């Protein structure tokens, strides 16, 4: 397949069809597109045009379109729909997607929307899901699943399953519960089909089943499903009752968001922004880190001011401050990034002490190689061997300290249950800039004997 | 479930059991663990111990363990197995995992291993898969799938499907092909079960099915599956014949690897390394970027050397060079990161020109706020208004230029089909350092009239 590409021409054509009120052509055109593509189109339309499009298509299609749309566009479009219209959309959605949308609605209309949902079981499930923290397994799960009681016979079971499966788009597993609703295990479709109809489920089910607690963090659920290659995982409450299930497609989104967030943190962007957000939103995400950088720079300037008396004899020292600061920053970001990634992927073994020793050796090796290059260059350029030695030696020390700081801070934050990703990027760069320049002038002063 | 945690005590216990040759206890212990957990254990054992463990368990378990193990440990363990033993492991694996392992084997033994595989169909599928580039849909796909001919009746179909399904762990879809093997569409299980046994498949199949070409890049396949919430996607060759299918669990790994790679690039780590790799491997990944930083620093030093005559009257200008360099670097990384992420997620709309205008406004806004702060501080600190104005004004210009460079370079690389992620991190920082300091001294000279 050639992936769908929203061209300017196509967008213009659609806008024109909306303006012309050409419902027939629009309907047949949209039928050709996947709902994710229709959502992409809707994101680029005005709120009025997008609302027109949503009202035009039947709720079976548009409900899926809504879940794929940008949050701000969706909110604006829902604002233009009546409680009954919104309820019709929710009716078509899986409970997890429906709960997400209800969670975004203005409080005043939630009750009215819920009361308009005809399928009362569905409404009850959605309300149940609203109770869970968005940032937990409960906030991710859906109520659609197939569960059977261990005391049923295969015959009961098949009948019940047929009823339940109607609401479930993709059956990943059949879960087995006891009379209290506690998750006991799972059932393979094959065993179910080959067993005699009078067999009890308790005699044929597989007691081994992975599950997560409703309060588990999404990142943890993602790690478990990824490690064990699961396509769905059941969710249990505090006393082990089966309350929902999470599917891999929701987890893919979690993994992507986590990675994007860590990447943005490392780049000094503190909020979840996209290139197409407003200048104001982008400023709010970027400015705080820049102010931190500014303060760091002022600190560095103040330190250099303290060594002002050296400037007449050793101006060259001041020429190398950007180099020292840059190297301290680069090494710090490298070492912290490796630790942050190791922590995120759960593959750091051994003690903090061992890590620091290793990073010290690594930084020492890199530092020495770089120092030799720097020594040769400075010596040739300026011809003052002593100054060249002072600068190069400082570089080694600065790199080692920067590496240790970059390794220690994320490990320390992680121990204190703070997201270590915050330690990468501007934070580590700025503190290493200051440390680096302080060490540099201090060592230079010592060696040059001023 | 509480996720499995490999403690030092558990590892010691297992090592002891291996030393004691206590096969019975080891076997019953490993039976309790998931294969991904056994792989985690094997990664921490010596090669001899890991080999012992692999030989001890039956190939049904160990084949899965092998696929989950670290590549270097797996290679070492396979080295200790005979061609026949390796073939037994391959026999149990899906074709995609088997082909990955065969791809890692030393060339001399590949043929022998393949010839030891008893299931000749399986062997043929593995050999077929070896032909595809690892970095393509063909390199990711497996041969296990359920396909039916459009000319079959429902009755033929059910019989054929039963045979095929034996080899397929999870049936995601039933694909429909014509006599030449070209992918025509898919079949819903429900339609198949409700249709009369004499109906032809061509009359009931759904002609709409997403597919990807064997040569498609894994990142593109990931984007498509993620956008359309697919759990599996069929792969077709150049003339549209169905040759395999890719499942979402493989795609999860692709997404994770892509994100990790971009993150490492931004942090100035050029190869796929982990915290537990050797100092030598880590040096090879980190040193090149540090040398780049060193060159940048030398460039900055040379520029400052060229403005040496200013040092007697305006030493303060030199104190602010780390600040200017840091701000240029930070802004550059921020703007490039947003572009790189937007490109990776395919959500950049509009022309390069528009992007640059937007970034200019954004940088101008941030720059002005920061410049006012800097102006106040410098004025109060040093009391020289003219110098303070020169420094602050330079800061605004430097930030705007850094933002434009950070926006332009990744867009430019992307147009030239070079991975834009390379433009984040040390590359952008270093070039912005040099630009920044040059602009800074040039403007200062202009304003202070030296």
Q: Explain this structure to me?
A:
The structure is a homodimer of 450-residue chains. By secondary structure, chain A is mainly α. Chain A has three domains: 8-135, MgtE N-terminal domain-like (MgtE N-terminal fold), CATH 1.25.60.10; 146-251, CBS-domain; 279-448, Orthogonal Bundle (Tetracycline Repressor, domain 2), CATH 1.10.357.20. Helices cover 66% and strands 6% of the residues of chain A. In chain A, the strands form two sheets. Chain A has a three-stranded mixed sheet. In chain A, helix 3 packs across helix 5 (59-68). The longest helix of chain A has 31 residues, at 352-382. Chain A is elongated, with a radius of gyration of 30 Å. Chain A starts with 7 loop residues before the first helix and ends with a helix. The mean pLDDT of chain A is 88. Chains A and B meet through helix 14, helix 15, helix 16, helix 17 and helix 18 of A and helix 14, helix 15, helix 16, helix 17 and helix 18 of B.
């Amino acid at each position: 397949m050639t992936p769908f590409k929203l061209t300017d021409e196509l967008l213009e054509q659609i806008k024109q069809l909306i303006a012309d009120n050409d419902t027939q052509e629009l309907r047949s055109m949209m039928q050709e597109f996947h709902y994710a593509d229709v959502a992409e189109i809707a994101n680029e339309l005005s709120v009025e045009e997008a609302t027109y499009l949503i009202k035009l298509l039947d709720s079976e299609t548009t409900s899926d379109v809504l879940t794929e749309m940008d949050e701000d566009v969706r909110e604006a479009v829902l604002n233009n729909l009546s409680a009954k219209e919104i309820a019709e959309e929710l009716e078509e959605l899986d409970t997890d997607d429906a709960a997400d949308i209800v969670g975004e609605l203005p409080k005043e209309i939630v009750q009215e929307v819920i009361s308009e949902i005809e399928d009362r079981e569905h409404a009850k499930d959605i309300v149940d899901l609203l109770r869970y923290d968005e940032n937990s397994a409960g906030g991710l799960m859906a109520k659609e699943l197939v569960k059977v009681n261990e005391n049923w016979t295969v015959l009961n079971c098949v009948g019940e399953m047929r009823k339940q499966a109607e609401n479930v788009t993709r059956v990943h597993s059949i879960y087995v519960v006891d009379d209290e609703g506690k998750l006991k295990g799972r059932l393979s479709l094959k065993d179910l089909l080959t067993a005699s109809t009078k067999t009890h489920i308790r005699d044929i089910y597989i007691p081994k089943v992975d599950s997560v607690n409703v309060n588990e963090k999404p990142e943890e659920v993602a790690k478990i499903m990824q490690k064990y290659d699961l396509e769905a995982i059941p969710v249990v409450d505090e006393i082990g009752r089966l309350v929902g299930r999470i599917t891999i497609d929701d987890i893919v989104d979690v993994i992507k968001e986590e990675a994007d967030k860590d990447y943005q943190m490392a780049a000094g962007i503190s909020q979840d922004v996209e290139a197409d957000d407003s200048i104001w939103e982008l400023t709010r995400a970027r400015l705080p880190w820049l102010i931190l950088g500014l303060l760091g720079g002022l600190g560095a300037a103040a330190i250099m001011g303290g060594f002002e008396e050296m400037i007449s004899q050793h101006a060259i020292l001041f020429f190398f401050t950007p180099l020292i600061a840059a190297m301290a920053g680069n090494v710090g970001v490298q070492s912290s990034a490796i630790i942050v990634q190791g922590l995120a992927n759960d593959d750091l073994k051994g003690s903090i002490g061992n890590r620091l020793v290793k990073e010290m050796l690594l930084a020492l090796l890199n530092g020495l190689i770089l120092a030799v290059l720097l020594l040769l260059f400075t010596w040739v350029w300026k011809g003052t061997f002593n100054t060249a030695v002072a600068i190069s030696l400082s570089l080694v020390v600065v790199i080692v300290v920067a590496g240790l700081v970059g390794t220690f801070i994320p490990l320390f934050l992680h121990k204190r249950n703070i997201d270590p990703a915050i330690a990468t990027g501007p934070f580590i760069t700025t503190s290493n800039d200051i440390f680096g320049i302080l060490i540099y002038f201090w060592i230079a002063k010592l060696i040059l004997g001023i």
